[in-house]
Amino acid sequence: MHWSLAIAKDIVERRKEKKHVVATGITPSGDIHVGNLREIIIADAVHSALINMDVDARLIYIADTFDPLRRRYSFLPEEYETHVGKPISEIPDPEGCHSSYADHFLQPFLDSLDDLGIKIEIFKADEMYKSGMYVDMIKEAIARREDLSRIIEEVSGRKVPVEWTPFNPLCDVCGRITSAIVKGYSPDKQEVYYECECGNKGVASFKGGGKLAWRVDWAARWKILDVTIEPFGKDHAAPGGSFDTGKRISSEIYNYGAPYPIPFEHILLKMKEEEGTKAKVTAMSSSRGTNIPVHEMLEAVPPEILKHVISRVRPEKHIEFDPSLPLLHLIDEYEREIGGIGRGVAGTIPFRHFITLVQIARGNFSELLEVIKRSGYEVHEENEEGINEIEKKTKYVENWLRKYAPSSLKFELQSALPTEEIKSLSDAQKKALKLMAQEIKEGMSLSSADWHNKIYEVASATNMEAKEVFKAIYIALLKQPSGPRAGWLLASLDTEFLKERFEAAAEKV
Ligand SMILES: [Zn+2]
Ligand SMILES: [Zn+2]
User: Fold this and answer.
1) One domain, residues 92 and 219
2) What residues flank ion ligand 1 with Cβ within 5 A?
3) How far is residue 266's CA from residue 4's CA, in Å, rounded to a whole number?
4) How does pLDDT run across 229-280, given as a tens digit for each residue?
């Protein structure tokens, strides 16, 4: 049984609600990365399992757009120092292409969710506050400031300062949401009176004039949005942590039962800094730059693969995400157990094989179509959808090769005979190449298996180990002693070209 189904069954058994809301929340303060995506993938899987069980369930994502910018991250220009402390919905887009800082990082992520086929209702925290959805929660929180303070102290064991209030006003002079202190309030007028570090004394409305402290905010939104299920990073689940606090705030202040928690482990990124170095394992973090944004990963692998990589692992286990060879192994596994990538002919060519074909075509798409045909696949140029699917798969492969592939999988088909390297071949190897050339008859076409057998025949005819023949072939074609499966490589190349190349190599002294 998939873990998502086991969780869905447990929810139906334990919870009394007949309608469920599965909530997720991520702050778009930087690129939303593959590590963040785990929360959505888990929520989506459980939501789908509930729907398959005929349970009424919704899937929502709350973008924390009203959170302050914590510090000037390394990817921000110097002048963004002045924006630290302001809500990210109120800060300009650092690249000027969206209406706010928050949207700049949120929109590519929402587009990725579309690509991933995840249908999710979007709420933006700043809009929720501005529209008044939080008014009653704020009123209650301010009225019960002392109870909240006591709960936080009891659960976390931390001392809460006397001047602490659960509401952080947005200063109308300096624009920060982190530097004003509430001095008084009017529940009737739905406003607080504050003093800011910048010297400003002002009035802030419950409607968009500030936000609840985050532990209180978390509990408040459960009630506002009827949340019954929520996955979150395991750090929040630690005893005395934010979920424990939220649980008590929810029941004691808001008279609402906390959602069914699904704590999950991190995704650790395993990546080599440069070729030849040992891969480093780091927790994914946007602020430290150790992450791969979801939209970037989706340029190099199809969405179903990214989804598979994350959803195959139970939430309580960590994932070591290595986008190089281990990711390719997972793609192999997916193709074996679940299905091909892409529709039409594209879906019948294994991804690993496609990596070879794309490199043989050297960026020339019409040559790629020829290469695919020579490899034994039927391609119909007039079938637009089929061609589009091949194009799509080509883009994934090209991006994966450029960004993540280990050098062992990369090669360059040599347009001319690599004369220097050929000199390193033994006479026996040259003889083998000559035999290979003689075997190629006009107009013949061999499958990869045929080629494979032929190499072994030539090896035994020349009394050589097959690996020496392989090596000679790779050097003659790729200027390197190893390469992709030789059968695949030879089958995808034009036989005339091969004949000429092997002859030229055999004659070179
Ligand atoms: Zn932008
Ligand atoms: Zn101020």
Assistant:
1) yes
2) 93, 95, 97-98, 104
3) 17
4) 999 999 999 999 999 999 999 999 999 999 999 999 999 988 776 666 666 7
Q: Strands 56-63 and 121-124: what pairing? A: parallel
Give distance in angstroms: CA of 326 to centre of ligand 1: 33
The per-residue pLDDT for range 219-242, each reduced to its tens digit, is: 999 999 999 999 999 999 999 999
How far, in Å, is the centroid of ligand 2 from the Cα of 211?
A: 15
Q: How far does residue 274's CA lie from ligand 2's centre (Å)?
A: 46
| Type of residue at 284 | M
**Residue 381, Cα to own-chain centre: how many angstroms?**
33
Instruction: Compute, in angstroms, the gap from residue 102 CA to the centroid of ligand 1.
Output: 9
Task: Note whether 487 and 432 are same-domain residues.
Answer: yes
Q: What is the distance in A from the centroid of ligand 1 to the CA of 109?
A: 12
Ligand nearest to C-alpha 168: 2
pLDDT digits (tens, 9 = 90+) for 325-339: 999 999 999 999 999
Backbone torsions φ then ψ of 481, nearest 5 degrees: -75, -5
* C-alpha of residue 100 to centroid of ligand 2, in Å: 20
Evaluate whether residue 156 is within a structural domain: no
Alpha carbon dihedral 447, 453, 458, 463, in 10-degree steps, equals 160
Query: What is the distance in A from the centroid of ligand 2 to the CA of 437?
Result: 81
- Tell me the CA–centroid distance for residue 106 and ligand 1, in Å: 9
Q: How much of the chain exceeds pLDDT 70, in percent?
A: 97
- Tracing tokens 């009035």 back to the chain, one arrives at 203
Q: What domain range is 366 assigned to?
A: 345-409
Shared domain for 95 and 233, answered yes or no, is yes
Name 62's bridge partners.
25, 123
